[in-house]
Specification:
This protein has 350 residues and is mostly beta strands. It has one domain (2-146, 157-314, 324-338): 7 Propeller (Methylamine Dehydrogenase, Chain H), CATH 2.130.10. Helices cover 4% and strands 47% of the residues. The chain is built from 2 helices and 30 strands. It has helices spanning 2-10, 335-338; strands spanning 19-20, 29-34, 40-45, 49-58, 61-71, 76-81, 88-92, 96-100, 109-113, 118-124, 129-134, 138-142, 151-154, 159-165, 168-173, 177-182, 189-194, 201-206, 212-217, 221-226, 236-239, 242-243, 246-247, 250-255, 262-266, 271-275, 280-284, 295-297, 304-308, 327-331. It has a 4-stranded antiparallel sheet with strand order 1-30-29-28, with no helix packed on it. Strand 26 and strand 27 form a beta hairpin. It is globular. 45% of the residues are buried. Residues 1-17 have a biased composition (Polar residues).
């Protein structure tokens, strides 16, 4: 009986009974970003599109209305909002970032360029600058009113992941480098760390208190790393997104904006909620039938958006367009799923 139930779960894209977003992208979703000011969701996709939905919520009833979209010339890999919620930035394989004045209905314009695909983009309101990380091994800062970057920072390798909580910025590159910047002095590396995880970095997330960061790898592990040398004893790694001998990538790390617990999402099709301080998993959700490549909380943490689609980790030969439909789902976290728990005893071990 248990085998049968696992089979039915594995073939169901929505075993957690989440709310399905209307008119999802026609190809895999690469990033999800909520407006910091409203329940407006943006998704970028391998179908070269950036799409926007308005999410309406009335108690437990949630609906989505497709609002607008723009095109890139090639697959789009990343997105970010301006802090005032007016504007979306998107970058990808066409080596450019487009600035889309979404709320005013304006036309998108190119505001950043690299020599290779742009993997990460982040708006830094404290500096009024856009940061872009590329596979051309550079990090660039842009004043969107000027055609040239205000600073280009050489990276040791291709940018794979980026997280900002001013003044902390962490860039994860190929070859397991983690480069830490203090944005009060952005032209100098603050610290360079070799990832505590043995395999390729997939995602990073700065602590809300800027005292450290999470790093996730392709090998189903997350590292919790503090920057202060006096706090190194608090560092640890843990396994997640594994099923028996099967090991899956950790694709996404998101801190809850209120409770400061965090979510992981992986290529096993599962998402989980964790409390790093008590070292506990708060909630494990059922596995979806395809990987979860990206996820995000809305601005008050009442909605968790995640995509379910092929993530290309097994190559083009395992991609079946007939069955590989892309979905975006909305989960409404219960407080018990995302609110931290007091440490058990003194060790707080799981």
């Amino acid at each position: 009986m248990s085998n049968f139930s696992s089979i039915t779960t594995a073939s169901n894209p929505n075993p957690n009974k989440s709310i399905e977003v209307a008119q999802p992208p026609s190809d895999s979703v690469s990033s999800l970003s909520f407006s910091p000011k409203a329940n407006i969701l943006v998704a970028t996709s391998w179908d070269n599109q950036v799409r926007c939905w308005e999410i309406m919520r009335n108690g437990p009833t949630v609906g989505s209305v497709p609002k607008a979209s723009i095109s890139h010339d090639q697959p789009v890999l990343c997105s970010a909002w301006k802090d005032d919620g007016t504007t979306v930035f998107s970058g990808g394989c066409d080596k450019q970032v487009k600035m889309w004045p979404l709320l005013s209905g304006g036309q998108p314009m190119t505001v950043a360029m690299h020599d290779a695909p742009i993997k990460e983009v982040a708006w830094i309101p404290e500096m009024n600058l856009l940061a872009t990380g590329s596979w051309d091994k550079t990090l660039k800062y842009w004043d969107t009113r000027q055609p040239n970057p205000v600073h280009t920072q050489q990276l040791p390798d291709r940018c794979y992941a980026l997280t900002v909580r001013h003044p902390l910025m962490v860039v994860g590159t190929a070859d397991r480098n983690l480069i830490v910047f203090n944005l009060q002095n952005p032209q100098t590396e603050f610290k360079r760390i070799t990832s505590p995880l043995k395999y390729q970095t997939r995602c990073v997330a700065a602590f809300p208190d800027q005292q450290g960061f999470l790093v996730g790898s392709i090998e189903g592990r997350v590292g919790v790393h503090h920057l202060d040398d006096a706090q190194q004893s608090k560092n640890f790694t843990f396994k997640c997104h594994r099923e028996g001998n099967e090991i899956y990538s950790v694709n996404s790390l998101n801190f809850h904006p209120v409770h400061h617990t965090f979510a992981t999402a992986g290529s096993d099709g599962a998402f989980n909620f964790w409390d790093k301080d008590s070292k506990q998993r708060l909630k494990a959700m059922s596995r979806c039938s395809q990987p979860i490549p990206c996820s995000t909380f809305n601005n008050d943490g009442s909605i968790f958006a995640y995509s379910v689609c092929y993530d290309w980790s097994k190559g083009a030969e395992n991609h079946n367009p007939a069955t590989a439909k892309s979905y975006i789902f909305l989960h409404l976290p219960q407080e018990a799923e995302v609110k931290g728990k007091p440490r058990i005893g003194t060790s707080g071990r799981k």
